[in-house]
Specification:
Helices cover about 60% and strands about 5% of the residues. The chain is mostly helical and about 625 residues long. Among the domains are: about 150 residues, no CATH class; about 45 residues, no CATH class; about 190 residues, no CATH class. Strands 1-2 form a two-stranded antiparallel ribbon. Strands 3-4 form a two-stranded antiparallel ribbon. Helix 6 runs parallel beside helix 8, helix 10 runs antiparallel to helix 11 and helix 10 packs parallel to helix 12. The radius of gyration is 34 Å and the shape is globular.
């Protein structure tokens, strides 16, 4: 759940350079709003806004209408103006004109002009359309239609973003001004503001949060969650209606993500059918343009499920805390039982012993009347998490980077919900493995970083189930990448642009998660040594300082996990002639050891000492 913004970052004044000037300007607008000519001023400002689409008139009108002594009719009038479709919805995406591809030509060898095109809206209609061309050459490529509502320049997109934020903020300010008189506008504005809160653009999201908090205060609600809970019936009805219309799908998904984020487990009764519809729709053709929004809803939903149904930690006894005395007593008891059975069988022929065994088996078979019971049904939140993961497996292959990255994030957030349900978890991990390996081998470092994070999550929950395939398919290529990048990052510490490069981000991600990956996969001494051979390059003083610190943490954790293997590796790294003299009062006669892992070559010395907590 996002924090409410304390300020309005979309209001960046060009000529008001300090807070005192801004406050003075707000006071002037408040006086204008309380004056007798306020309606005439608003008329003039609206004309300027419709003509030039500038942000300054909106800011002035918001301050005028929100003034304590302003005429409330101004607020009602501006709310009706702001929520008009042509005013409220402005384009914020850039227009991209790309040439038509071969697949989009009218060549009959590629495109069949007599093909039937299926068209359907779930729950509304189904049909098919046959397209026939007349007087058009098959060799003439079709012209791809560009979005006429998209912005042509980044400046226009930035201006529209500011306008939309001011419109959203204005609705909230006027709601607070009207108080209980805002209720007639609640049903008309609530879903519009919820759309803004669910926007993927940070400024719109913050503006929506601020407006939603103002609307909540106007109705006397204690919080945004209380406002949504009071109007849950209306909101879920609007979501259900919009989902059935392809052109309103994105709006419905944005609203749903906000409703889930600000609600508690009591709203699950409303969400059962909606989430089921989304899971069935997200793979259809008309939903491909809104995959990111679908994934946003799924991610918010699984995160909320994790809070509503926290997983109980299973306390497992560590292998080091074995009760040796109890095991010894059990061993003695077993030996005594074996001796007793051998004495009873002394003097019996092989035929007699065989007859007794057959008789015992028949009695056991006749007496076994137990009926295998079906496994209890999975909890609904586990079933929902399982279904979401199964859908997201297909999206990991997406060519769109943001969809592929977000789908891996959703899977990583959903896997903890399957904790304790290994029969469901392990098959899903098996399905995820192939697309995950494909993404780990991708050239895009952003995708690769998120794939590493998902691998760590999978290893944490599946443990050694992944050990063999991870060692073969992932760890060795990952070690090679880290070894190659260690040469690139050498002597590039502070002041170097390398710290802002994708390579450095990949190194940081890999070195951060490498200790947990080794521990969760339960690698043996050979596997740990392979990891240390890769990581020791980052103990060099020539590496960037953050990477050195991560390498020190890695070896410290390896000393705890596999102390013997790590100690021997560091001895080989040090290669010194120092002697480790055993203590004089040792209970056993210990030999003197040549080469101690505390004194390394100058390149590694300070970091090796840091591993053992020795001040250099």
């Amino acid at each position: 759940m996002s924090m409410l913004p304390s300020e309005s970052p979309w209001r960046q004044f060009r000529n008001l350079d300090d807070k005192a000037c801004v406050d003075r300007m707000r006071d002037i607008c408040a006086l204008l709003g309380a004056g007798d000519t306020a309606h005439l001023i608003v008329d003039a400002l609206l004309d300027i806004f419709y003509e030039k689409r500038d942000s300054e008139p909106l800011c002035i009108m918001n301050w005028m209408a929100a003034a304590p002594n302003s005429d409330r009719a101004i607020s009602r009038r501006l709310i009706s103006t702001y929520i008009e479709e042509k005013v409220w919805y402005l384009p914020v995406e850039l227009r991209v004109d790309t040439p038509a591809t071969v697949d989009e030509t009218c060549d009959v060898t590629v495109y069949n002009p007599r093909a039937w095109t299926k068209d359907n809206v779930p729950g509304l209609f189904e049909g098919a359309t046959e397209v026939r061309y007349t007087d058009i050459s098959y060799q003439t490529p079709r012209v791809r239609e560009s979005n006429p509502h998209a912005c042509r320049t980044p400046a226009q997109a930035r201006q529209n973003m500011i306008l939309m934020c001011l419109l959203t903020e204005g609705v909230g300010m006027m709601a607070r001004r009207l108080g209980e008189e805002f209720q007639p506008y609640l049903m008309r504005t609530l879903c519009l503001v919820l759309e803004r809160v669910g926007s993927r653009y940070e400024l719109l999201h913050l503006a929506g949060l601020k407006a939603l908090d103002d609307i909540s205060a106007s109705g006397g609600h204690g919080s945004i969650a209380e406002l949504i809970a009071k109007n849950a019936d209306y909101i879920t009805n609007q979501i259900t209606r919009r989902i059935k219309k392809a052109w309103n799908t994105k709006s419905a998904l944005e609203i749903l993500s906000v409703v889930i984020d600000f609600s508690d487990a009591a709203i699950l009764d409303y969400l059962y059918a909606i989430i089921g519809d989304l899971l069935s729709q997200c793979c259809e053709l008309h939903a491909q343009n809104y995959l990111y929004t679908y994934l946003q809803v799924f991610d918010v939903f699984v995160l909320r499920l994790g809070r509503w149904f926290p997983q109980t930690e299973i306390q497992t006894e560590a292998q080091s805390n074995i009760d040796i005395l109890s095991d010894l007593m059990q061993y003695i008891k077993n030996e005594e039982e074996i001796e007793r059975l051998l004495k009873e069988e002394e003097g019996k022929t092989a035929e007699e012993m065989y007859t007794e065994d057959v008789a015992k088996k028949d009695v056991a078979t006749d007496g076994d009347e137990t009926v295998t019971k079906d496994a209890p049904p999975l909890p609904w939140h586990v079933e929902a998490a399982k279904s979401i993961i199964q859908r997201c497996v297909h999206f990991i292959h997406s060519e769109k980077r943001d969809v592929a990255v977000f789908s891996m994030q959703v899977v990583g957030d959903a896997l903890p919900l399957l904790e304790g349900h290994d029969d469901e978890l392990l098959p899903l991990v098996h399905q995820l493995w192939s697309p995950l390996v494909e993404r780990l081998m991708a050239d895009d470092h952003v995708v690769k970083r998120h794939a590493i994070e998902l691998l760590v999550t999978m290893a944490h929950h599946a443990k050694d189930f992944l050990r063999a395939r991870a060692t073969k398919d992932v760890l060795q290529p990952l070690y090679k990448i880290l070894a190659r990048l260690s040469n690139e990052s050498r002597r590039k510490d502070k002041g170097s642009s390398y710290r802002w490069s994708p390579d450095f981000s990949l190194q940081m991600t890999a070195m951060t998660h490498l200790p947990a990956l080794v521990e969760d996969l339960a690698l043996n001494d050979i596997g740990v040594e392979s990891a240390m051979c890769c990581a020791h390059e980052y103990l060099s003083k020539d590496q960037p300082r953050p990477l050195q610190e991560l390498a020190v943490v890695f070896f410290q954790r390896m000393l705890v996990y596999r102390r013997g293997a790590c100690w021997l590796f560091l001895r080989r790294l040090c290669q010194n002639e120092l002697e480790a003299v055993p203590p004089a009062r040792a209970p056993l006669s210990l030999a003197t050891v040549i080469c101690v892992p505390h004194q390394a070559p100058v390149e590694f010395d300070s970091n090796v000492k840091a591993i053992f907590g020795i001040k250099s």
